[in-house]
Amino acid sequence: DAGITQSPRYKITETGRQVTLMCHQTWSHSYMFWYRQDLGHGLRLIYYSAAADITDKGEVPDGYVVSRSKTENFPLTLESATRSQTSVYFCASSVSGETLYFGPGTRLTVT
Amino acid sequence: GNSVTQMEGPVTLSEEAFLTINCTYTATGYPSLFWYVQYPGEGLQLLLKATKADDKGSNKGFEATYRKETTSFHLEKGSVQVSDSAVYFCALSGPGGNTDKLIFGTGTRLQVFP
Known about the structure:
A: mainly beta; B: mainly beta; 6-stranded mixed sheet
């Protein structure tokens, strides 16, 4: 199916574990983004990518790693998960960086 | 740097009431302005946008006008429905009109009761 998908949709992990959230889009959009959504903070940008092999930090990048070897995929890795990384994570893609198309989100709980 | 301020929620209305959700911004240059909506359990989706001063964005009965003199982009709807219950986010393009990334407000929850 066309669109933007995220997996898993729900994840529970323990403090200190590595976890990877996947994002896949079928539109060949140049831009991809990772946001986290927390009560009282709205959406905060973690990392973004303007094209394959080009990534840049957003507002809250610490503790996260991204890669973009293919245009359609933009995985987000938490190298050593902490409780403060419990959140809902949204991936988005865009042609120009203005109109964003969001995935359904991944709810991550770190215990 | 650029920033967006939205009114605190939740906003609670009866069906067919008039809606206003306030949004003001601080920006360098001439950013584009956006409203995104998030329905329960879903990701955000673009509701409307305006790219220059005095532009009016509209969609699904919602409207917002880009007011440079008051640095505002308030969202309005004349008659809300229960199905409009959602979280609404105001956003603007990055510093100096940089469109590489958007800056979002904290969101305003709207609850509409029959």
